[in-house]
Amino acid sequence: MYDKSQMMRGTLEGCILKIISSEPTYGYEIVMTLQKFGFEDVKEGTIYPLLMRLEKKEIIWSEFRSSPLGPSRKYYSLTEAGRNLLYDFTQCWLSVSDTVNTILKLGE
């Protein structure tokens, strides 16, 4: 059986960039959105190191905001470099998925 989680990991960064592209989003909210759309195995322990790496590379930036439900939350947003990377990811994904779909239809 093919390992779906391995394939999903390869697209995780681009999906995270898309999730935070429309509005600032905190880590747990990113995890819940990913799980809602099929990344069932993604946990906070996977996401936070990735967010830290993206922030260090200045792809995203963060700010703490107060929360009515408890301690402040760290919200993430895209930088201009992050918007450019999301665009590149989207173009690459569309090209790759078109190619794979074409190959999978061979012989039909």
TrEMBL record:
Sequence ranges assigned to domain Transcription regulator PadR N-terminal in this UniProt record: 16-86
Q: So which domain of life are we looking at?
A: Bacteria
Q: Name one Pfam family in it.
A: PadR
Q: What SUPFAM superfamilies does the database record attribute to this sequence?
A: Winged helix' DNA-binding domain
Q: Cite the InterPro entries for this sequence.
A: Metal_resp_DNA-bind_regulator, Tscrpt_reg_PadR_N, WH-like_DNA-bd_sf, WH_DNA-bd_sf
Q: Which PANTHER family match?
A: PADR-FAMILY TRANSCRIPTIONAL REGULATOR, TRANSCRIPTIONAL REGULATOR RV3488
Its protein name is: Transcriptional regulator, PadR family
UniProt source species: Clostridium amylolyticum
